[in-house]
Amino acid sequence: MQKNSKRNNNSRAPALEVNSVDTETERNKSQNNFVELLPLEVTFKIFSQLDIRSLCRASVTCRSWNYAIRNSDSLWKPHCLTVRTVCQREIDGDLERGYSWRVILLRNYQKSKVKHEWLSGRYSNISSPVSLPEKIMYPMDADTWGEILEAELER
């Protein structure tokens, strides 16, 4: 009987040590997470300095960063307005439909990159569809192709 009680006591001691290590680890993580420590205004100022790619990467760092970034339209709006210079019709349409700035950016970012390449004349000398770089193409509607054709005709 005493062997069992000793065994049970021994098995409890390491569990307490593990819990204290976990608590210490959590405390250290919390101290290193500026999103939880700083006022929101300061946190958003820091995040607002990031480009689109960095902002997306920061949003997958941890839950608190994801929540802060995902739920702050003010972080996404400036990037979205930059994309709007190329995709004005698309951005304005998404705004009318009530999408958030983050969703609008996600919906239009890749398209804006491809559309910009077409409008700037990057593909003006392509002689066949086989010559097009497949990896960076993006499906576009008839109005977008009309804009691209008009730009080509002006060249």
Helix content: over 70%
Quick check: average pLDDT? 81
Number of helices: 9
**Major sheet summary line:** none
How do the SSEs run, as a string of H and E? HHHHHHHHH
Evaluate the radius of gyration: 26 Å
Query: Beta fraction of the residues?
Result: under 5%
What is the straight-line distance between the termini?
94 Å
Give me the secondary-structure category: mainly alpha
Low-pLDDT ranges: 5-16
Q: How many strand units?
A: 0
Shape: elongated
What is the strand and helix layout of this fold?
Blueprint (H helix, E strand, L loop, with lengths): L1 H31 L1 H4 L2 H9 L3 H8 L3 H8 L2 H12 L3 H9 L4 H19 L22 H13 L1
Task: Describe the protein.
There is one protein chain. By secondary structure, the chain is an all-alpha fold. The longest helix has 31 residues, at 2-32. It is built from nine helices and no strands.
Keywords:
single chain, 155 residues, mainly alpha, 73% helix
